[in-house]
Design goal:
single chain; alpha/beta; Aldehyde Dehydrogenase, Chain A, domain 2
C-alpha cells in the first residue's frame, strides 16, 4: 500500500499527450543519470573496505540523529497527525539500533567463510565463500514506517558495500523532500540519492537495471515491480503484508492477550503490515473478550482526537475502512465500536472496532484491513484454526497465545507464515538478529541482521586448487592407472 502503480495519479484531466510523454521522458532521464552515476562509482570502487562501510553506517546513524526533530515533524505532516511517541519508538529508536547492531557484527560478517572440501578428490585444495557487494540497489519505501524501513534497508545495503537509490511513497511527500535536502550533506549522490513519487516515478524506477530491488508494499504493486525487474533479471526482495492471524488458547490469561493484541492494533492506528488482522477466540470466551477490549480501550484510548492517536494516512484509506464496516454491517456482521466517539473524517481518526459474526463474502474476510478494525472469529478446536488459515494466502505473521508448548509448536509446524511472535504480536520484527520477510503471497526474501547482509551481497563461492593435483593423472587418453583410480572412486562414493 505504498506506491502508485501507474502514471495516472496527479495528472490533470485534459492534459496534452505530448506533455505527458515529455514528463515521462524527463523522469526517465533523471533516473537513468542517477543510476549511471552510481554504477560508475561502483565500478571504480567495487569492494569498499571495512573502514568505509563502518563510516557509511555511522554517517547514516548521524544523519537520522542530527535531523530527528525535523524527521518527526515531516512524518507528522504527511500523516496529518502521527503520534510523536510512535515516531520516536518505531522510526528513530528501532532504526538507529539496527545500525548499531550491524556495526557491532560487521567485521565478522565480512570475513570469508571456510567451507569443507572432498579430500579424496581435491586433496590440498580449499573452498571459501566470500561476501562481495552486488553494486547498485533500488529501495521502494512505503509510507507507514518510512524512516524505519529506509534505514533498516540502507543498513543492510551499506554493510554489504553497495550504493542505493531510494524511492519514497506518494504519501510521504514532506519526508521525501526533507530527505532529498539533507542527504547530500552526509552522502554523495554516487552513494545515496532519494526520489519522491510525483506520478510515474515508481514505474520507471522499477525498470532500472539494479543489482537488487527491495520493495515493501501491496501484493498488487509487488507483482508489477517483480514483472518490471524480471525484464533485467534483477533479483527482488518483496515484503507484501497479508492477513496475519492471532489465536488465543482458552487456557491463556485472556486479559493479557487482549492487552497485547490491542496495544499493537492501536499502534499507528493499525497501519502495520504485520499487525493482527484477525483473532481466533474460543467460542466460550467471545463475550468476555468483547468486555475486556472495551475496558482496555476506555482506559488507553479515551480520546481518538488526541495527538497520541495517529490519523489514517489519507482520505482514500479512511473511506476504505468506512466502506469495510458498512459492507460488514449490511451483510449481517455485529460491529462493536470500542469508543463512544464517532469516526472523525476531517482529521481521519478512526476508533478501534471489533467485527464479529462475519461471513465469507464480506470484504473484511478477504482484504487486509490495515487499520483499527479487528475481526473476531470463534473456534472450538485448534484444527479449525489451522484449516482456516491454510485455506487462505500464507500470512506475513502468526501470533499464537498459549503456555502450552506442544500447542504452540503445532501451530508453528502446521501454519506457514513469514514470522512468528509467541504470546505477543509484532515484536519479532524488532529483533535485530532475526531475519524479516514473508512467504508466498506475503513476500519473498529476507533482510535484517546477518540475513540482510547476505541478501545484499553476492556470497561468492571460490575454489582454490592445490599446487599439485591428482587430476593431472586422470587426463585423456585414459591410462590403466586412471581407470583403476576412477573405479576405486566409484566404489568409495557408491
Amino acid at each position: 500500500m505504498n506506491q502508485a502503480t501507474s502514471i495516472e495519479p496527479g495528472i490533470e484531466p485534459g492534459i496534452e499527450s505530448g506533455a505527458l510523454t515529455s514528463s515521462i521522458e524527463a523522469t526517465k532521464k533523471v533516473l537513468n543519470e542517477a543510476y549511471g552515476r552510481q554504477r560508475d562509482a561502483y565500478l571504480a570502487n567495487p569492494y569498499p573496505d571495512y573502514a568505509q562501510r563502518k563510516h557509511d553506517l555511522l554517517t547514516l546513524k548521524r544523519m537520522i540523529a542530527e535531523n530527528r526533530e525535523a524527521i518527526i515533524e515531516a512524518i507528522g505532516e504527511d500523516y496529518g497527525n502521527r503520534s510523536d511517541f510512535e515516531s520516536k519508538f518505531a522510526e528513530i529508536i528501532t532504526a538507529t539500533d539496527t545500525v548499531s547492531h550491524t556495526i557491532k557484527h560487521l567485521k565478522s560478517w565480512m570475513k570469508p567463510q571456510r567451507r569443507s572440501i572432498d579430500l579424496t578428490m581435491y586433496f590440498g585444495a580449499k573452498n571459501r565463500l566470500i561476501p562481495q557487494p552486488l553494486g547498485v540497489t533500488g529501495l521502494i519505501i512505503p509510507w507507514n514506517f518510512p524512516v524505519n524501513l529506509t534505514v533498516c534497508q540502507l543498513t543492510a545495503v551499506f554493510a554489504a558495500g553497495n550504493r542505493a537509490m531510494v524511492k519514497m511513497s506518494e504519501n510521504s511527500i514532506a519526508l521525501s523532500r526533507l530527505m532529498k535536502s539533507i542527504s547530500p550533506r552526509y552522502f554523495p549522490v554516487e552513494k545515496l540519492e532519494f526520489f519522491e513519487e510525483t506520478g510515474g516515478v515508481g514505474v520507471e524506477f522499477s525498470q532500472l537495471p539494479f543489482d537488487l530491488i527491495i520493495f515493501t508494499g501491496s501484493g498488487a504493486t509487488g507483482r508489477k515491480v517483480m514483472a518490471s525487474a524480471a525484464q533485467n533479471l534483477t533479483p527482488v526482495i518483496l515484503e507484501l503484508g497479508g492477513k496475519a492471524p492471532a489465536v488465543i488458547d482458552p487456557s491463556f490469561p485472556l486479559q493479557k492477550a487482549v492487552e497485547r493484541i490491542l496495544f499493537v492494533k492501536r499502534f499507528n492506528a493499525g497501519q502495520i503490515c504485520t499487525n493482527v488482522d484477525y483473532v481466533f477466540v474460543h467460542k466460550t470466551q467471545i463475550e468476555a473478550f468483547v468486555t475486556l477490549t472495551k475496558e482496555w480501550a476506555a482506559k488507553h484510548c479515551p480520546d481518538i482526537n488526541a495527538d497520541d492517536y495517529t490519523s489514517i494516512i489519507d482520505d482514500r484509506s479512511f473511506k476504505r475502512l468506512q466502506d469495510t464496516l458498512t459492507d460488514a454491517t449490511d451483510k449481517g456482521a455485529r460491529i462493536v465500536p470500542l469508543s463512544q466517539q464517532e469516526p472523525n473524517a476531517q482529521a481521519r481518526k478512526m476508533p478501534l472496532h471489533l467485527v464479529l459474526d462475519t461471513q465469507p463474502d464480506m470484504t473484511i474476510r478477504e482484504r487486509e484491513t490495515f487499520g483499527p478494525l479487528l475481526m473476531v472469529l470463534p473456534y472450538e478446536r485448534p484444527e479449525e484454526v489451522i484449516d482456516y488459515v491454510n485455506s487462505h494466502d500464507r500470512p506475513l505473521a502468526l501470533y499464537p497465545f498459549s503456555n502450552n508448548t506442544a500447542l504452540v509448536e503445532r501451530y508453528i509446524e502446521r501454519i506457514m507464515s513469514g514470522g512468528v511472535t509467541v504470546n505477543d504480536a509484532l515484536f519479532h520484527v524488532a529483533q535485530h538478529d532475526l531475519p524479516f520477510g514473508g512467504v508466498g503471497p506475503s513476500g519473498m526474501g529476507h533482510y535484517h541482521g546477518y540475513e540482510g547482509f547476505t541478501a545484499c551481497s553476492k556470497m561468492r563461492p571460490v575454489f582454490y586448487q592445490a599446487k599439485r593435483t591428482a587430476m593431472t593423472l586422470m587426463t585423456p587418453p585414459y591410462s590403466k592407472f586412471a581407470n583403476k583410480m576412477i573405479d576405486l572412486l566409484v566404489k568409495m562414493k557408491s
